[in-house]
Amino acid sequence: MGPEVPLLNDYKQEFFWKRFPQTLLGGPRLKLGYCAPPYVYLHQLLLFLTPCMLGGVGTVLYQVGLLGDAYAATLSGGLMLAVAAILQTLAQCVARRSGVVQRLSAQNNILADEEEVEFSHCVAPETVRFIVPGKKFMVNVVLHTLLAGMLCGLGTWYLLPGSLSALYGGMGAAMPVFALSWVTLCSGEYALIVNTPPETATFQPQDTYEITALTRPLYILIFIAVDLIYRLTDPMNELRLACQVLHVVFVVLPVLWALGTLPPPDALLLWAMEQILVLGLGGSPMATNLRLLVMFLISAGVAVSTFFIPSTLGVVLFTVGMGYLLSQDGSQLGAVFGHRRAPSSTLSLGLKGLPLCLIFLAGAMANGGLLHHYLYEPTTHTGNLSLDGAPLEVLPSVRFNGAQAAVGYMLICLLVLSRGFREIQGVFLLGGTLRNPLYPRQMGCSQAFRRSCRCLRLAGYLRRVLLNLVSPFAMIAFLALDGSLQDLSTASLAVGFTRAFRMVWQSSEDALLQMVVVVLVRLGSIGAPATGWHSLGTGVQLLVVGLLIDRASQFISKLKFALTVIVTSWTETKQRRQSTSAMLALNAVLCPLLLAELVLSALLSAPLLPLFTLPIFLVGFPRPLRSWPGTPGTACPCPDSVYYQQLSTRLASALRGAIACGALGAAPPGSHFLCRFQDRVMWLTLLERGYGYCTLNIKGLELQETSCHTLEARRMDEVFEAALAQTHRPNHWRQMLNPHWGNTLTPCCALPVKLYSDARNVLTGIIDSHEHLRKLRGDYVKVLLWLLLQRCAQRDRLTPQLQEKAPLSPVANSSSSQRALQRDVQLSTHLPGSHSSTFSSSSSSSSSSPGQRGSLSSSADWLDDDDLFGPQITRRPAQPQERNFSLPGSVEVLSLYENMALSALPPLRPLGLGLPAADRGSGGLHDASSLPASQRRLSGPHSQLLPGEWRTAPLAPPQMLQLQPLIPSDWFHFAVGRLTVGGQHTVALLQEERDVLELFGQVSLSCLVALGLEAELPSPSLVFRLYGGGAPWSEALDWLKGRRELHQLALKAFRYSFKLLFDQASLGPLDSPEELQATLDEYEHHWYIGTATDHGWQESVRQEKPFLFSLGHDLAMGTYTGRVLTLQEQLVYVGQVCAEGVRGQWANLSWELLYATNDDEERYSIQAHPVLLRNLTVQAADPPLGYPIYSSAPLHLACL
């Protein structure tokens, strides 16, 4: 990646500079990419100034004293309502009448720009459509029209010169505010009723319900509402100052809209509910919008109820109980009460956790209630204060003693212990700066790692006990003994204590820190006058402390992110551009402005947006903590997604303990983590957290690594290796520092996870070895015989079930083979005497005789040395249902060892393969009595073993006789003797019948020839094609594909044979039939041998098959590769990503793609950045902006 990759290409630059003025002005398109008549611009300018002119009418009438302020505002609003109704009616009429014409005109000039419009005159339909596009929904037509009239009326009242003059104390300051404020009001009216501009603050990828048009009117109405409160209530200096400031901000609203600082209505609503829920009501950010809405309403209802409870004891019991219940995972209620099953029994408490929850609830309420009843000491003033016997004119002093003081000291000890135990759980200490000498490094296997972590696990268990059991009860005791409980009649204290009792459970560690801060402040203020801070009450103090800690932590994180972007823009050579020096100098000069942006961004909890990820910072618009509007779980799936699907549940189970013991740090909601194993990169987002549970989203990034992906993945590996490498000089102080402290990734821990390890081997020397390839045919016949025997045994075991329920056999995958099997079973008892009539009728039938199916009249017709895959017969064989000549169970393929006499059968015509064939040399037919055993029909009990249609292969007798030595009789008898799956009937039948070997051998050789393996030394390319199911065409192959079950068995046998070849070449030959039998049994039960694109491969991964094997071909290197997946427990490295860095890059991604439409795959902001991990961060964004190949639904983990 070169440093001078363009930020925007030429086309996008032109597009951006046409769009940005439209955003700044509120909708007028004054810059087009083509020549337009002057009346187009004149119409837009006139409509833009219409609200100002209509408002001016009311303003003038008010100033001359003809109308009061209310009547003047009503007049202006009525006029604007009429104009808006006329515009929308005109737009709807034009859209209905000329919709067809519009489509035809767009088709006429296919070379024209899609945005170009041909204007005919000033009131033409295309002119109206261009200036006033209209609304999609009739509801919006009515709503926006009414809102436009109300907005103009209220805006006229808001900007009356007399009111502004009274507010600022003179017309000198009022007139500039009056003039510029009407520009803001006109832009809001134009966006609402004429043409909605593209907004830089875009939250939804598509504005389906036309919410964007409400953005500017919403903020205008908010400003007007504040001024309305000031005018209609008693004058207050604070409110007057707020109105003065807001009037100035009102002037610069178009600039804030253009910069994207103010959120759209949907993002504003979600952000406001989340901030109130977290900071004001003690809740947690929620995983979905629906959960956020429900939890917000319930929590607000609890706070309101607390205000109306008269008894302090009732307040304690109610808030403790509701705080505990609301901090639980509501999604598991269905699993607890049996309405639905939990996603995984390993990830949730379910019904087994219900008694534990009830015990905790009862214990907490008893703890708070008893302490408050027996040890509570009410005071005569707010706060935990005492008059200390002072005279009335002396202010009360702060005193901190008694039972609450003892609990306060206990809280300090609990905080120190819990934080200490949490710090030693991770790889680094003190925010990732120093190495943890207690953490094990360079562990080769998970078992050794587990043994090395015994002491850390013990510390983790102690932390869990202190934080989850001891701390909540201690904090409840501290709150229950607080003297400010008597003043809950004030709304602030009611909300404060409701939040405090909720935080005890919802976020125990944060609540503990906040209470310790309050305790330390009280200890440092003993004896001081109880004014200001000390008069607020404990509930409000905790709320303020929580807000300050949250915003301070955000500021520090944003500052680190900004410094990382600034420093790496120069230190990273590939990130250094020609303009970098100028940007660094500008940041140095405007350092106070940059700090102000950081402070504003932290106060609003908004992302710090680095424009194009350059050191040019903007304040992004506030949005929910998870950054995206939809529910997590959307991805761009591909065949590799199945590996992440298997991994997600296992990884989530391993993360439960890591989160509970503190190995991942504090891990508040909104945290992001990266997990690395081999070529897999998992992105974890903590969505929600409560007492004993957390909610995660796991994303899987692409495995087909691009150059940018590879560069950042390599840096990830370097960071993890440096963190977990053994220290060679433990006494050297530099070895204790984190060498990658400035990186956005901070290693946390290593987790043992059961997953698939991927091993790839180059098969040069194996697949091209003549020594190994010569064994392939013999191994193939052995394996296929074994699979056929297993199939017979399985079929015999399932026969009673088939007779009772008549379902399709799981082994038989085609209806034709099942029908053949049933036909053989039903007709196997027919007498041989009845065979003659069947053969006679079939031989005389010209429509169905197999003699018509391309049979050859001479054995010379079968001999073709130039054809590797056998004879090329011109006509295809008839369908199985057309063969009415054969007996059920008869063998129509060659029988190599049969000595049965055929004197009982009538003379047969040449029926093709496996029957008497004409000899060109003699010109006659062979005598039936002189036929070899391989050419005689078989019947008897063994005909039930295989379907009759499997014995009708179009194969040449000489070719079959040539391949006869490949049939291993010893291996066959050994395999028959080792059958244990099937019933006794099949085993006895296989052992007693002498013709069984010929029967199975015929089918095996038929499959061998059909696949083109009759050559002694197949080529590597042929082996690769056959492994993938791409055998060379022949009529035998068509015959084989017509028998779906047999074709699958043949393909499976070949894959087993190749795996056998691979294992023998790697581990040595198999010396005995017992070893071969054990190997095939292992293949059958513990392996999936196929290709990575098979559906069975993905199902095997989901079902966690222990081993998988596939054969591949590297086109770039020209080599064949073997891939082995092994399910085993391995160490997965987990690191925390800077949350503010992720939010800032995602905010830039949203701006760049949704507003600037910069979707260039080679754009600067997607190139590799080894410190910011920019490419991986872009991939992990939710679609359509990001492209993770896997994204789990929100996973609820029980981590108590």
Give the SSE map.
Elements: H1 10-25, H2 38-63, H3 69-97, H4 99-108, H5 125-131, H6 138-158, H7 161-168, H8 171-193, H9 215-232, H10 237-251, H11 253-259, H12 265-280, H13 289-307, H14 312-326, H15 333-336, H16 354-375, E1 385-386, E2 397-398, H17 403-423, E3 428-429, E4 434-435, H18 446-452, H19 454-480, H20 491-506, H21 508-524, H22 538-571, H23 580-589, H24 591-604, E5 608-610, E6 617-619, H25 641-661, E7 672-677, E8 680-690, E9 693-700, H26 707-724, E10 745-762, H27 770-773, H28 776-805, H29 815-827, H30 835-844, H31 957-962, H32 969-977, H33 984-992, H34 996-1010, H35 1020-1027, H36 1035-1042, H37 1044-1067, H38 1073-1086, E11 1087-1090, H39 1095-1102, E12 1107-1114, E13 1119-1137, H40 1139-1155, H41 1174-1179, E14 1190-1191, E15 1195-1198
Parallel strand pairs: 11-12
Antiparallel strand pairs: 1-2, 3-4, 5-6, 7-8, 7-13, 8-9, 9-14, 9-15, 10-13, 12-13
Which structural class is indicated by helix and strand composition? alpha+beta
Contiguous uncertain segments of 5+ residues: 100-114, 341-348, 380-393, 798-939
- Mean pLDDT reading: 82
Q: Given the C-alpha coordinates, what overall shape results?
A: globular
- What is the CA-atom radius of gyration, in angstroms? 41 Å
Q: First CA to last CA: what distance?
A: 46 Å
Residue share in helix = 40-55%
Main sheet properties: 9 strands, mixed
| Number of separate helices | 41
- What's the total count of β strands? 15
Beta content: 5-15%
Pfam families: Pecanex_C
Keywords: Membrane, Transmembrane, Transmembrane helix
GO cellular component, one term: membrane
Transmembrane segments: 39-64, 70-95, 137-160, 166-192, 239-260, 267-287, 293-326, 347-366, 461-481, 530-549, 584-609
